[in-house]
Amino acid sequence: MQNQTSLQFGEVKASGINLSLTIQEGRDIVRDRIVEGIKCPCCDQLVKLRQRSISIAHVYFLSNLYDITIAEKMFDFNKLRENNLYIHKDRASQGKAKTATDYNILKYWGLISPMPRDSGEKSAGFWKLTAKGYEFLIGRIFVDKYKYTFDSRVYPPPGHRLAAQKTIEVSDVVKGFDWKETLLND
User: Fold this and answer.
1) Is residue 149 predicted with pLDDT exceeding 60?
2) CA pair distance 113, 121, nearest whole angstrom
3) What's the count of helices (H) and strands (E) in the chain, helices before strands?
4) How far apart are CA 165 and CA 97, in angstroms?
């Protein structure tokens, strides 16, 4: 039995990695099938462009971040760009937001921001509501209905040259969402 280092160029490993392909050939194969998903012929990783959308639980996660930020900082949200309060996901995942296990996808819209890793503190799981997140939450702005991601990066939608991207506001996600009632009367 050969080990990986003794494989000759052009041989195929049992795992499905094709060593005869160039990186560019592998990229071309993957690029053509990224929407439906394909195992990369170079590294055997599943490559699939995922369509992400904002759910009701995500809106409540944003609402909880807002509530906690106001309670902790007691500042005017017009100065949200100065917000440096990072809240652990477990604190913000209470009540109706408990089902938002993929809350971190909100970063693709710029609605939340992770704590920088170089902050000198434990940063995993700490997030802050951004000004854009607040503007979305109160219904002042629209955001793209979908974000398309792979490997923690955002990509243009499939066929993006052919159609305009659909946008949504918070009331499209949560029918009848009244931010004043939800945020100001808790």
Assistant:
1) yes
2) 16
3) 6, 10
4) 27
- Give the Cα separation of 139 and 54 in Å (integer): 14
Q: Which of 167, 124, 133 is nearest to 60 (CA)?
A: 133
DSSP 21: S
Q: Is 161 helix (H, G, I), strand (E, B) or coil?
A: coil
Instruction: Report which of 51, 52, 53 is spatially closest to residue 173, judged by C-alpha positions.
Output: 53
Give the span between the Cα atoms of 77 and 168, in whole angstroms.
22
Kindly report the length of the chain. 186
What is the pLDDT averaged over residues 126-149? Answer: 91
pLDDT at 112: 94
Helix/strand/coil for 127: strand
> Would you say the C-alpha torsion 164, 155, 49, 124 has a positive or negative sign?
negative
